[in-house]
Amino acid sequence: MADTAASRPLPARIIAWALTLRLVRAFLLYSERRGPMLADSITYRTLFSVFAGVLLGFSVAALWLAGNPVAWQALIDGVNAAIPGLLGEDGLIDPADIQAPAGLTIAGILSLVGLLGAAIGAVGSLRTALRVIAGKVHDDVLFIWVILRNLMLALALGGALGVSAVVTAFATAGADAINGWLGLSSDHPLAQVGGRIVALVIVFALDAAVIAVLFRVLSGVTAPARTLWAGALLGAVGLTVLQQLSGLFVGGASSNPLLASFASLIALLLWLNLSAQVILISSAYIVTGVEEQQDRVRSKYGASTFMQRRVRRAEESVRIATEELKAARLDEKKERTDLAAQQRERAQREREKAGQNARPDA
Known about the structure:
Layout: H1 10-18, H2 22-32, H3 35-65, H4 69-82, H5 106-134, H6 143-182, H7 189-218, H8 225-244, H9 246-254, H10 263-294, H11 296-301, H12 306-358
Helix pairs in contact: 2-10, 3-5, 3-10, 4-6, 5-6, 5-10, 6-7, 7-8, 8-10, 9-10
């Protein structure tokens, strides 16, 4: 008798229904391609990049903002909005301890080199993770171009923090002006709620833009705008929630006597790791959406059990490996062709040189 949905047990019907949901399939894709392990790699590299970037960036910013405490505080607030608990008297880095550089020194040059290396490594780890999630193993871009692209993207992310601080400062000034027109003091509940909403909107927009740019540049997948922004907005929701709940990480770590001495560092590690997982899950959501657009029936209804999905993913792994093998063979063939052409040119030059030497002197 043919197997029908109605004849299946209730748990089987629930599993079949769940596998039609894009979010469920995205999380399964994230798990199947070792997303948590990839997030650990991103966390490790990003931690060094964050410290180097903040110390060097704030040292340089102190040259221009030393006489402008409002702008200096706006920069601190902008960084804390993106990476909660990093700056402040109770944070990992106290901005009061950061001094403006007296000039170009060897220590400053070494710090810059260390920052660039850490930033390139962090973006490189994220790039590898996104390509693994997307199933894009083969990379036909020269290594030097990959490094330069990672560097430019790291600089763009650092610039995004600065832009966030500037936008936050302008938004705060605008909100204060509106409160003044309405006759509301800064301590009024409506003024505080309005300022909080403005800050959340700015952070949410920045998070969504960052996820969209990261996926577009690093994953190797060209996703339609609707699919791309659906995943980016989903990831922005997760990142915004994490940023608002960051105090729980510090509280949980500081409440443990064994962790209290370095609670801020533990909290930052937890926050970075969870943020990396959110970015990878949202990227898996985009990849799942692209697969669904390419073949909606197979992607959404091709597997109604976990075993069927396992077969599907195994077939996908074979396809990826086959494409990698095909690309490697093409590269090898091109290499042999180029080498043969170089050998022919060298032999031709040697024959011409031998012919010139064999001519009798005039």
